[in-house]
Structures
1.
Amino acid sequence: MLSKKVKSRIFFLVLSIITAVLIIFSILKALEENVVYFLSPTEIYNKTDITLDKKIRVGGLVKMNSITKSEKTINFIITDLKKEIIVSYEGLVPNLFSEGKGVVVEGKLRDKKYFVADKIMAKHDENYMPPEVNKALEKSNN
Amino acid sequence: MFKNFFPYRILSLNKSTIRNLVVLLIIVTFAGLIYSLLLSPPDYIQGDSVRIMYVHVPSSFIALGCFGVIGIASICNLIFKIKFMPLLAKSLAPIGSIFTLISIVTGALWGKPTWGIWWAWDARLTSMVILFIFYIAYILIWKFIENYEKANKISSIIGIVGLLNIPVIKYSVIWWNTLHQPSSITLTSAPTIHYTMLLPLLIMFFVMIIYSLIIFLMKYKTEIIKFKIVKKKNYK
């Protein structure tokens, strides 16, 4: 069927692909902290070696009814439905930033429960629908 | 089906096949653009910037698909030494690289109004840049290495290594926390995109696939003719 030459080529190629996959896997595993774009509040809670002077990103949902605006600063709570982090931020927020929606913030931790952000990014989920459908959905949920 | 991509079938392609495909392309492009830009509704949060998706998602699909074929062709090329495999892969590379670029640029244009930033070094976006680098490397090797056998071997290795990046791109949004959202259309569950937006998206998929097919057929035919001429010269 397959000649000896072809068989040895398949063997060699399969072997090198497996090696390459293992190498890539271990590199990605070692760099996981850098590959992950943001941490969830639970991950921060479970982290033993938190650094307060290094910039990190935290992501999750903006808790309902948690946004409070004062003159300059805006405070809100990021939740992953298990743990929460209070975020304080000065500046403009993106248009899509709103309660109940995803958000990623960049800045420094004060402690495990308090985060000072200097950049806010709104995260969009995988749901797409026209406004009327959304209204109808909300109505049926209520 | 596969037999249609054998060189003798491609060489006997007459002009009317391409012309018919172009006519089809023009019709579906008009239908797709009118549907996606005018008739389809805006999104409930993103508003009109959702329309960028109709270009972005099919482009990304073709970018990944082309490299997938290049990778598989490279494997077949190294193992079975099938003569037309490198020609096929070579003709797909420019198409895929352009669509990678389109995907990255439209993604940035969408990112600014949605996320608030043009660019983020998250896993999905970074792996897409790596894909683009692989495309460029693949094209440059064919351009600058004069010896055919040598260029063939090195480009095949690039194709195979780059193939490993494809599942990383696909699953990056599931394996790690990324700013980029997960796929709305998956094989296993119902799409999380409303059908009034799914339909124009599917038409745009069709548009880009037809377009790529036309460019591919033209480029592939040229490559086969070039290959035959060079081979003739070498044997004289």
2.
Amino acid sequence: MTDAAVATSAGRLRDTALGQQELAARLDRLWGTPRGILGWLTTVDHKVIGRRYIATAFFFLCIGGLSAIAMRLQLAKPESRLIDADLYNQLFTMHGSNMMFLFAVPVMEAFAVYFVPLMVGTRNIAFPRLNAFSYWVYLSGGIFLWTSFFLGEGPDVGWFAYAPLTEQQYSPTHRPDVWAQMITFTEVSALAVSVEIIVTVFKQRAPGMTLDRIPVFVWSMLVTSFLVFFAMPAIMLASTSLILDRLVGTQFFVSGTGGDVLLWQHLFWFFGHPEVYIIFLPGTGMVSMIVAAFARRPIVGYLPVVLSLIATGFLSFGLWVHHMFATGLPQMGASFFTASSMLIAVPSGIQIFCWLATLWDGKPVIRTPLLFVLGFVVIFVIGGMTGVMVASVPLDTQVHDTYFVVAHFHYVLIGGAVFPLIGAVYYWFPKICGRMMDERLGRWNFWLAFVGFNLAFFPMHILGLQGMPRRVYTYQPEMGWGGLNLTATVGALILFASFVLLLWNAVRSTRHGVAAPDNPWDAGTLEWATSSPPPPYNFARIPVVTHREPLWAERDELPVAHGLSVERREVLVSTITEARPEIRQASPEPSIWPLLTAIVVGIFFLGSIFTPWAVVWGTPPIAVALVGWFWPKGSREDET
Amino acid sequence: MRERLAQDVSGLPTWAFESKSTPWWGTLGFMAIEGMGFALAVGMWLYLAAVNPQWPLGPPPATLWPGITLTALLVLSLVPNWWCNRMALRQDLRSVQIGLVVMSIIGLVAVALRGFEIAYLNFRWDVDAYGSIVWLIIGLHTTHIVTDVGDTIVLAVLMFTRHARPRRFSDVTDNVFYWVFVVVTWPPLYLLIYWAPRWMG
């Protein structure tokens, strides 16, 4: 009787007695995504869905970038006739909405969907079918927004869609509806992913990964997910109220009948300000990972860094009114929000000093990911300083709605999130694709991005101080803004070229890059413990964590847990603080229902732009789809 | 990388109740999101009350009896709900079946009473901002009642089939948990819809 047979006779076949090869073969069959179109549509593998998310988000970055280039070409000279006012209004609205809702938030969640399960040492994300559903809903929202644009119905009311401009009286077309319903699509998706991430981090950490051993990127995504929890309901409530005002005549934002236009601003910015940190905090998490790996030492001040993330999360809910200084506020209110806006610079500053200390005390190896981190520090610090400036009411009322603010938030968002993101692409590409990206192209990529970015956005500070307002499609020659605008346009083209180079590097490296070993950077966290790219089951056996940097603590052999089934998909569910395993829980198998549900939900959302009756005829199909989704199919996951 | 067998997990159970399992945490997560939605809707009501010199604006307050009846039903429903939870923890299938059928019936009655509540609001959503926010709040809560009743009915049916395996008892306790959320979110909304306008007006 073989060992495996003994294990079977005692119940289910477990991994304990199996050799590496047989175990890998069995797990491959068990966890692999089926081939063919059906396999493609039904997969629940977090890595497959994470890759889709990343690719889709970068596609939206690309077309969002093209819309920016179109605007910059229009503004390159005074009184240009390249783009008319109507198209320009749509372009800046599409650019902002696309970058915030279809690129920045989803791309960070995409990296989390791919890497959080690997970093915490589990085999799949919590609620894998919800994860699949979230992707399809996100994709539908993106297609919906851009299709509307190409049909001439692109939103033209700014990315924050202020009332009363968005009310039926001033915008009788469907353009604001498209904006509002795109919000619904993307927020449903983001909320779903946040639930998955929080539960994965709380309950699916590998044995021994106590709270103080959680990688900083995972912490950053945990805090971000909580921000999504409490910020995004505000925008969903706002956009729903707006649709109701427009569709069935509610009066939320209509002044004459007790409604209030500033209610919109409060709801929007109660979401909108935490949104900045929903984008920025994952960026800081990426920076912490890259800095530790390339400084060749653990991050200095793990505890202050994590506490800073949490403090930033809390404080981010106390500054939304600084977006509304120009609306006329009671002085006490203005003072409070000025103070809180300045206060949030403190935890960000603590993180920056921790990173600098890590680099100072380590032996930094300057590779492309670290270059992007260094670029991030420079750009973000400048953006942070102009942030402290506009936190002051007198200064803010002067530069409000000018290009100074455009410069400020691009320094914060591109500096704070996109530079770390590109660094993270270079850092984790080998893990995702199994090949290294080209280092020489990477350095070109960095310098083009750094020079292009500063050339594009630094002049906007001066343009703003000179009085150039935002959202104007042209200006007169006598204003004297032509030279700086031309400089900004040249910078934008260089920045765009840097992204073309990134794309070229990624595509070329996928085919011709040097094969990546499991841990090409000799980093310390668990995603590097498995092969590049990882197998469908992530880890043949679940690691047992003994240190914050497990791979640096256990260089020769990794302690692992054993005893999981090889006959059905199982993940370990553990306690929240100590990560002590408690259950071998079944993990869902592939299913078509998430896609079908996303389709009927999409039809419901689309229909409710045109008729309130969509709620009546749109609900039963959703109910049917959900029952189909949750009804047991007699598969192995339902057996116990 | 070489592996060293360090911890045997083969003796662990394959499912568990409440906070030991992931679906419970997922449910809690959605409660947090939806609870925030309720809190913000209440915030909208208070904001509109603060910026309008007169509040409620025009309409007479809603008729009391449907709201009182539904509130009483919801509060009383916590008893069979709690009993259902206890039976699920004991893995007593017959009792759980009875509990779920009872909760389904209570849920359907609650939906019907909600219909009366809406019919006796005495104003439409488009009359003014007061009408709009009251309809929004009651609509938001109705969505929760309807969703949970649907969920309870499906689960009740499931527990009469061959799929009523032990781990489904954990689903029953999660369903009980969600109904508690639906009930406890209601009293503040009830006070806001029925009594606050009477006290302020």
